[in-house]
């Protein structure tokens, strides 16, 4: 497959956009080469500017659970657009989607819509700090909660030390309030509580980590966090930006039967439009302006096009009884096929999967946290990525990303993908 026009477009884009993109991972820096420019997409496929058709395993990094250009979402957006694209005033639509989300997700009574997952997590943290009157938070190395300052912190030398910013522009002052823990390590979290008694407002966690590849929570991890939060007057925030409405109707809370105090959403909840949200029980949400003292606002929050897309998406997910079983079966089928092909070719690998989130790590050690995720062989990943691209299969251009399976994939698509993996594996 040729990607000539994409390369030309990238060169042009690089003149006027930093790195040629509006979000860094799109630039292919960790795999080399130049990004694919998309012309259009439908169902499970992307069509690029060179006329190639690619089977898409990124799906806009998660939102397109039901496939690209999903008809009910497109119709809802087009019809709404004809009636005005933004008012900055309340609409009935916002209440409709809020009611539906509240009915689908356990433990939430009110929800606030924002414009991205980053905003959702940033606002959730502010709310938790305001509600508890404490400053510090615990986050896990390798978890991503968007690009706001408090989250761009990487581990220092010891687990109980303060974090250090991993982007210039994040101040030490901000970094010192973010404590870092190892994913799946309750002892580590316990020691942070002991060293910071009555100071920790919240733990924020991806209930299934999806930003160091896919890393499932080990048995008891999420429940252990719940117990530690309860014992310490700390709020538990599940960042369900990836997992919400993807792992089940009620997200990871429902799947693992663990309740969070605040839940954040993004991706699927907007059906492909820029939407995020955070939600909790009344006691917490009533702390938010205009009811309470914690300020949060947005000119385009609750935007009618975004709400129409989100409502169409959530309504279909809610009605679609077999959806999550189908996603599980399709992804399990893919997992089995990839395993067989890689084993046959003698490639060293680990596959992690929860429902329709899956990733392949090129290392034999089980991947349970950021350190083990970093063991993966990036040179093999690069070859795997570019090999698949040549076969018309588009996976995320980084070893630290999850594949998002869409219901639009047919078994024929999955078979073609498995065959492509076999072909590529022989050359790894
Ligand atoms: N939280 C998680 C778990 C994510 O995966 C992401 C983005 O990938 C975010 C938050 C940030 O969302 P957004 O990119 O919409 O700002």
From TrEMBL:
Q: Name one GO molecular function term.
A: glutamate-1-semialdehyde 2,1-aminomutase activity
**PROSITE patterns to which the protein is assigned, alphabetical:** AA_TRANSFER_CLASS_3
Q: Which residues form the signal peptide?
A: none
Report the SUPFAM superfamilies cross-referenced here: PLP-dependent transferases
N6-(pyridoxal phosphate)lysine is carried by which residues?
267
Pathway the protein takes part in: Porphyrin-containing compound metabolism; protoporphyrin-IX biosynthesis; 5-aminolevulinate from L-glutamyl-tRNA(Glu): step 2/2
Q: Which CDD domains match?
A: OAT_like
Q: Identify the InterPro entries for this entry.
A: 4pyrrol_synth_GluAld_NH2Trfase, Aminotrans_3, Aminotrans_3_PPA_site, PyrdxlP-dep_Trfase, PyrdxlP-dep_Trfase_major, PyrdxlP-dep_Trfase_small
Keyword vocabulary terms for this entry: Cytoplasm, Isomerase, Porphyrin biosynthesis, Pyridoxal phosphate
What cofactor does this chain's UniProt record say it requires? pyridoxal 5'-phosphate
What is the superkingdom listed in this entry's lineage? Bacteria
Q: Which family does it belong to?
A: Belongs to the class-III pyridoxal-phosphate-dependent aminotransferase family. HemL subfamily.
Could you tell me what this protein is called?
A: Glutamate-1-semialdehyde 2,1-aminomutase
Protein source organism: Flavobacterium cerinum
Give the gene symbol.
hemL
């Amino acid at each position: 497959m040729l990607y000539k026009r994409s390369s030309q477009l990238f060169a042009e884009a690089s003149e006027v956009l930093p790195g040629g993109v509006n979000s860094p991972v799109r630039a292919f820096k960790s795999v080399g080469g130049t990004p694919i420019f998309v012309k259009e997409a439908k169902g499970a496929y992307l069509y690029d500017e060179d006329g190639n058709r690619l089977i898409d395993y990124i799906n806009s990094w998660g939102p397109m659970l039901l496939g690209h250009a999903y008809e009910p979402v497109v119709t809802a957006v087009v019809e709404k657009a004809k009636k005005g694209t933004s008012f900055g005033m309340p609409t009935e639509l916002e209440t409709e989607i809020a009611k539906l989300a509240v009915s689908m997700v356990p433990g939430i009574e009110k929800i606030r819509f924002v414009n991205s997952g980053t905003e959702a997590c940033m606002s959730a943290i502010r709310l938790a700090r305001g509600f508890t009157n404490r400053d510090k938070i615990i986050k896990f190395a390798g978890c991503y909660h968007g690009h706001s300052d408090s989250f761009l912190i990487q581990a220092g030398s010891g687990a109980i030390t303060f974090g250090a910013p991993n982007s210039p522009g994040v101040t030490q002052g901000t970094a010192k309030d973010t404590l870092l823990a190892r994913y799946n390590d309750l002892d580590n979290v316990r020691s942070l509580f002991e060293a910071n008694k009555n100071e920790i407002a919240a733990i924020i966690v991806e209930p299934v980590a999806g930003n160091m590849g896919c890393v499932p929570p080990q048995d008891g991890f999420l429940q252990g966090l719940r117990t530690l939060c309860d014992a310490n007057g700390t709020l538990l925030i599940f960042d369900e930006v990836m997992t919400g409405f993807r792992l089940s109707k009620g997200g990871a809370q429902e799947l693992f039967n663990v309740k969070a105090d605040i839940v954040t959403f993004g991706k699927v909840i907007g059906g492909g439009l820029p939407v995020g949200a955070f939600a909790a029980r009344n006691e917490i949400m009533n702390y938010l302006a205009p009811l309470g003292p914690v300020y949060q606002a947005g000119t385009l929050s609750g935007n009618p096009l975004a709400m129409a897309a989100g409502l169409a998406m959530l309504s279909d997910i809610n009605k679609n009884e077999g959806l999550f079983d189908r996603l599980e079966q399709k992804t399990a089928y893919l997992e089995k096929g990839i395993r067989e092909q890689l084993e046959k070719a003698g490639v060293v690998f680990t596959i992690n999967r929860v429902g329709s989130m899956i990733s392949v790590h090129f290392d034999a050690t089980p991947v349970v946290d950021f350190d083990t995720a970093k063991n993966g062989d990036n040179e093999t990943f690069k070859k795997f990525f570019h090999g698949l691209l040549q076969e018309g299969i588009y996976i995320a251009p980084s070893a630290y990303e999850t594949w998002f399976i869409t219901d639009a994939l047919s078994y024929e698509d999955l078979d073609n993908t498995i065959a492509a993996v076999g072909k590529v594996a022989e050359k790894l």
